[in-house]
Write a structure and sequence with these properties.
Length: 363
Amino acid sequence: MENVLRPLIVIGGSVVLTVLIGWLVDFALRRADERHHDTPLWGLLRRCRVPFHLVLCTALLRGSYGHAELARNHSQAIGRILSLVLIGSTAWLVVRIAAAIVESSYARYATVHRDPARVRRVRTQVTLIQRVVSAIVGVVAIAAMLLTFPAMQAAGTSLLASAGILGIVAGVAAQSTLGNLFAGLQIAFGDMVRIGDTVVVDGEWGTVEEITLTFLAVRTWDERRITMPVSYFTSRPFENWSRGGAQMTGTVFFHLDHSAPVHQMRDKLRDILRDCAAWDGRDWGLAVTDTTPSTMQVRALVTAKDADDVWTVRVTVREQMVQWLTEHHPYALPRITTAWAEPSPNGHGPRPLAQEMPRTGRG
């Protein structure tokens, strides 16, 4: 009877104690979350219930398994398995706690500071910090698991002796990976590019969607994803339209005839912008910027609060201005002068005749 009750008491007691302690901790976190609504940390820590229960139960079983006197012939193997589970669950718990702290810090910072650029910078930094912590914890956990095996402990001395050579070989083999790793840290803390920034890379316009320690993902305007190594942004020039603020100035060009009514176009541009919700009202203008023997170039200048809105303002101005010119001032559209070929020297052939053919302008 004692051989049956002893394992039941040890295993059952560990499970019951785990459930009881887990319930008390969860109750305390729930009460703290109710009292401090402005601090999301307590609510985020409640997500750690599963790894916390696993760590607690495994630790209790690991410490009391010897008293159960169960499967004595396999006690060493069972003890090693419990140690491996304890190490893995502890690493899982540490990663969850670190993620909760990082997310809580970012949420509080985003609530206090209203500057979108600063919020995106902090978001990029905390995301990479969280990834670094997870990688370090994972490496330490794997190393601790390996050291539980006697064969690995015996090989420790020889591994340390050859650590210099292995380090050189690994450094050469993983040069690209290590370069991306340090480039990711440089991007995070050098404030070069942030999550949510509007960038132009290799002629593609898009928004930075994700930054990791090794790659960066850009979401283009047509929903494509461009994945690039982070070392690209530390070694090559690129356009960051969100650097220093999201406000932008856009231009629309029209190629028109010299007789185009510039003053009336300026008034029409003001009317178009007044009815355009994407225009932020900061600035606008219209001026002749260049001329050719057959046309002149008219530039319309508009402003908006971000890259998406400036695109909307530009296409609206281009469409409505061309429509207005076509309906009210068709003579202002660029024209191509054509003529029949010159007559041949013997007097035969068509007579010279010049005519003008209008064409649609582009901006």
